[in-house]
Design brief:
The complex is a heterodimer.
Chain A (H helix, E strand, L loop, with lengths): L2 H14 L4 H14 L6 H13 L4 H44 L3 H29 L3 H17 L3 H22 L1
Helix pairs in contact in A: 1-4, 2-3, 3-4
Chain B lengths: L1 H15 L8 H11 L4 H13 L4 H39 L1 H6 L1 H26 L6 H16 L4 H15 L3
Helix pairs in contact in B: 1-4, 3-4
Classes of the chains: A mainly alpha, B mainly alpha.
């Protein structure tokens, strides 16, 4: 398969990817395992798990794993630009026309509702992360200390991440040395 | 040199955000506070649009934020910069797949980043909630959405569409 064909597959995936995390796994499985048999099902599951444990956007990570597996560096680039191709132009077009509608009462109503839904979605993400931590004391302690620091001192996200990662890894090293 | 600054900010997001598209919001919040490229109200609107257009939310919102900050070149740079750390990490991890997941430091860093990201998201939720707290309708809608999620897990798009419809319907009363 050519790089361009791979790019086109990812363009299509980018166009049908709606809603986020829930649909990534089924879409990737259908495109690369069921339809084309290019990647094994075990590999797909591996990539999905790895994509979640790496920083960055999960769907983009997973696309790049598959692209790299199939066509190396250029495959990963084809995946990266493919998956963002349609979404990019959608945003640019929508942003250029939204100004005309933004003061419409119904558009305002819809945006108000979506604003509330976004808060709910953020709270649900927090809850999901809690549930996945499965009664892990280390998780609760780091969470509590980080949140307290954020609420009291309002540091930047990067400062917070660097400080607590150093502390957390140091603590892990210390307890490992003791064992 | 807004373009260089923009690339640097979004590269950092790609390198440090954990837990999916909404986990990038704390960083975008911070960018708004420091650089004033867009307001917090605009950010909420951007997240709303990013959630209903195709593509990963985290990428879409970067595209939109880049556009607001520095036009179409800005949006291309923001989107690419946010994915660049992933590009390198994916190649490194693919090459060292087994070694990677067994390394003590890699494991510890990932295990520490999870509660930190979760705390960052919590603080953003609190920040977004504060101005809404006096809005009784918003609080009722929020409670209803959370209640639905308690009963059964739904796709994020479901909450967004239902909330948009309710928001429009309320304009008739």
């Amino acid at each position: 398969m050519s790089i361009f064909k791979l790019f086109l597959i990812f363009v299509k995936i980018g166009a049908i990817l709606l809603g986020g995390g829930y649909v990534i796994l089924p879409i990737m499985t259908s495109e690369f395992v069921d339809k084309r048999n290019l990647v094994s099902h075990d590999d797909i599951i591996d990539y999905f798990a790895l994509s979640q444990s790496l920083p960055g956007i999960i769907a983009a990570n997973m696309s790049m794993f598959i692209g790299y597996k199939l066509k190396g560096k250029y495959g990963a680039l084809a995946a990266m630009f493919g998956i963002t191709f349609i979404p990019f132009w959608c945003i640019v077009l929508l942003a250029s026309v939204i100004g005309a509608f933004i003061n419409n009462s119904y558009v305002q109503g819809a945006l108000w509702g979506v604003g509330v839904a976004v808060i709910a979605l953020i709270m649900l993400t927090v809850r999901e992360m809690w549930q996945k931590s499965s009664k892990n004391t280390f998780f609760y302690i780091v969470y509590g200390l980080t949140l307290a620091t954020l609420l009291i001192f309002n540091p930047s996200p990067i400062q917070t991440i660097l400080l607590f990662t150093v502390l957390g890894v140091g603590y892990k090293k210390f307890t490992e040395a003791k064992q | 040199m807004i373009y260089l600054l923009l690339m640097f900010e979004f590269f950092k997001i790609g390198l440090f955000s954990f837990g999916g598209g909404y986990a990038t919001i704390p960083f975008l919040y911070h960018i708004s506070e420091v650089h004033h490229w867009y307001s917090i109200d605009e950010l909420t609107q951007m997240v709303a649009v990013a959630s209903i257009t195709p593509g990963p939310v985290g990428i879409n919102v970067a595209t939109y934020a880049g556009l607001k900050s520095a036009g179409i070149l800005g949006s291309a740079l923001a989107t690419t910069s946010e994915m660049l750390p992933s590009f390198f990490l994916v190649i490194i991890v693919s090459k060292l797949l087994r070694k990677f997941s067994d390394n003590f430091y890699v494991k510890s860093i990932i295990e520490t980043l999870k509660p930190i990201s979760c705390a960052l998201l919590t603080s953003v939720a609190i920040g977004l909630l504060k101005p809404e707290i006096k809005d009784v309708k918003a609080m009722i809608l929020l409670a209803a959405l959370l209640l639905i999620s308690w009963k059964s897990k739904k796709d994020p798009l479901f909450y967004i569409l239902i909330a948009a419809v309710i928001g429009i319907a309320l304009r008739f009363f």
